[in-house]
Amino acid sequence: MDPETKLSLLAAPQSIRKQPESSPAVYKSVDIQEAQHLGRYWTVIRKRYATVLTTLFLVFAAALIGTLKEKPTYEAKTLIEIQKEDPDIPSLQELFQLDTISDTYLETQDRILKSDDLARRVIVRLHLAEYPEFGARTMTAVAHSENQDSQLSPAPADLNAVPDDALKKFQKRLSVEPVRRSRLIEIKFDSNDPGLAAQVANAVVSAYIQQNLASRWQASQSATEWLQQQLLDMKAKLEKSQDDLQQYAHENGLVFLETDQGNTENISVQRLRELEQELTKAEAERYQYESLYRLVQQGNYAALPGVFDNKLLQDLTEKLADLERERSRLALEFNPEYPRLKEIQSQIDESESELASERQRGAQLIEDNYRAALDRENMLRQTFDEQKKEANDIAEKSVQYNILKREADTNKQLYVDLLEKMKETAVSTSLKATNIRIVDTAHLPKKPDRPRILLNLSTAAAFGLFLGIGFVFLQEYLDDAFKSVQDAEQFLRLPSLGSIPRITAANGSVAHKLYRRALSSGRENGSENGAANWNRIEGNGQNPLLAEAFHGLRTSVLLSRAKCPPESLLVTSAQPGEGKTTVAANLAISMAQLGHSVLLVDADLRRPNLHKFFGISSTNGLVDFLTGQADWRSLTWKAPSTGLSVLPCGSIPPNPTDLLSSDYMREMIRDARKEYKFVVLDSPPLAELADSRILATLVDGVILVIGCGTTPRYLVHRAYASTLDTSSHVLGIAINFTEPTSGYGYYGYKDTNQGDLLSQ
């Protein structure tokens, strides 16, 4: 893949390079990424293990010293039960209620046990202020141990005399812990003296019970006195309200009767109710006689009820009917002058006269009854109206009477309630029962509760370990340098051409540190197998890891272009000390090992180092050619048995930027590309100098060397931006000083200078 394609892929948005969710590669990449994160964390810890060990040692040592210097502390504890605060004389309903207690009540008692007043009482009772544990300078409290139970109720002056320091230390040593889902409370007290710890724990419970009894007694006494005073006031109000009620009834002539339901009722109202009932009956009776009277007025005697019940009327009606039949029969045979017909006719007339007279007498009786009923109704109605008027007058007067009566009844009920409550309070005052029960008393502790050596040391070790790891990651977070190849690739969006592992020399020093020391020593010559060869990939195979890394870098450079590899290369870095000279030299050596002719040019005219790297003379070099003193070909040094040629810098000029910008430099690179397969230039850093930017415009590609864990990001970004400003082509980055991976160990490589075999 050509570098343009690589850069386009790296610069592409995440949405373009993201695989479909259905692809199994997504899950595979996620797993690999998680594994890389875990491996990176372990790498960070391993790199800064000294910080972890130092922090662990300091925390563990501090905990050990503090634990050994701590005095033995004994803990005594007692257990109490707080029962439901029922009344002293419970009712029948309260006896069968479920015995429950609210969390609010338990929390209240918990705060009382931790109160300052209770603490002061115990301190005064046991003379704890005279103990050294509570601030006393000398031990003078032993003499009070025999009579310390005498002050069950200390005076207020003694309570106020308790020092604040003793109170704070007492509350710090006291612990009150309610037991969950129960009515139990555990009271603990710590002391350097086991006997004092048990004594104080029991004294706290005793003072708490005594305070509870005293508060109940005081509350009962106060309630009794208040009830007595209220009872006297209520009695006077009741007597006055009853007198006002009787006086008002007497002045207004109100007479009330007691009903079956126990209520009082005015006699006028009762009489009105009786008249109303009588009037209703009279109206009903009048309606009955009036209906009969109307039938009589209409002459409809046959419809009158009770007519056929009259024996005389029934006999007269039957006799008249018989005579009528007899007359009809004789009239068929005889004429009207017939004597028998006349006799029958005479009997018929007499019967009709008697029947009419009898009916008239019945109608008169009905009329008389109707008149009597009507008169009785009128009389009752008149009497009812008069009684109703009298009842209305009494009702108006009863409004005030009822008000006075209700007030009297209310006062009477309040008086009765207060009297009963006072009797109950008087009985409860005589009882001194408490709802607090001691379950377990505090006993003499047999062994100290603190210090807990094993717990303290294990906690300190765990805390020190986590604190050290936290410091490590804090240092890693504050460290702005690149930590890995992936970190550099993601930040710069450039491909990684190679990863140069960190190696150590024979004396155990880290490679780049030893190289800096060698450069500063001023040595210009060294044997091929000496200490100056530790960073070279040629020789007796003493650095196979380094050789394999540069072979990979060479392969990436040769394949960086699809059509043809770059013929001229510039190796630079963001700042000094990142190993760019080593990378340039070993890359040139690696290319020469393939049989190609390679020219390595030391274009760092400010701090040249290639002559030290190869152990050659630095008297003449590139500067002599740029100043027109000699031909560059005569100044090169050819390595034995390889096609590598080295053009050193020579003497350091006063104007390196002007020399690199001259036509001589362009001519030299152009001629060298014709004579050599590859031309590699070692240049100054890009951070503050213009030398590398000038050279970058003269070559086919630029390799940016980054020191892993040493180069800040902003410098790398500035260096990369400066190359882009010159329209130069950056092939990629080479990460130096990385941790060796297990991939090299697959082939059995050893770090000969360390003498340790890498993981297989």
Describe the structure.
The chain has 760 residues and is an alpha/beta fold. Among the domains are: 264-429; 485-500 and 541-737, Rossmann fold (3-Layer(aba) Sandwich), CATH 3.40.50. Helices cover 55% and strands 11% of the residues. It is built from 24 helices and 16 strands. It has helices at 3-11, 14-17, 24-47, 49-69, 92-95, 103-113, 116-126, 156-160, 164-173, 194-251, 267-298, 311-331, 339-429, 453-478, 485-492, 511-520, 544-558, 580-592, 610-614, 622-626, 656-660, 663-675, 691-696, 713-725; strands spanning 74-82, 174-178, 184-191, 256-258, 264-266, 436-440, 496-501, 568-573, 598-602, 637-638, 644-647, 678-682, 701-707, 730-738, 750-751, 756-757. The strands form four sheets. An eight-stranded mixed β-sheet has the order 7-14-13-8-12-9-11-10, sandwiched between helices. The protein has a four-stranded antiparallel β-sheet with strand order 2-3-1-6. A two-stranded antiparallel ribbon has the order 4-5. α7 (116-126) crosses α10 (194-251) and α12 packs antiparallel against α13. The longest helix has 91 residues, at 339-429. The protein is elongated. The protein starts with a helix and ends with a strand. The model is unreliable at 1-32, 94-98, 140-151, 257-262, 506-534 and 751-760 (pLDDT under 50).
In CATH, the topology of the domain at 485-500 and 541-737 is named Rossmann fold
Name the poorly predicted regions.
1-32, 94-98, 140-151, 257-262, 506-534, 751-760
Structural class: alpha/beta
Radius of gyration of CA atoms, rounded to a whole number? 64 Å
Percent of sequence in beta strands = 5-15%
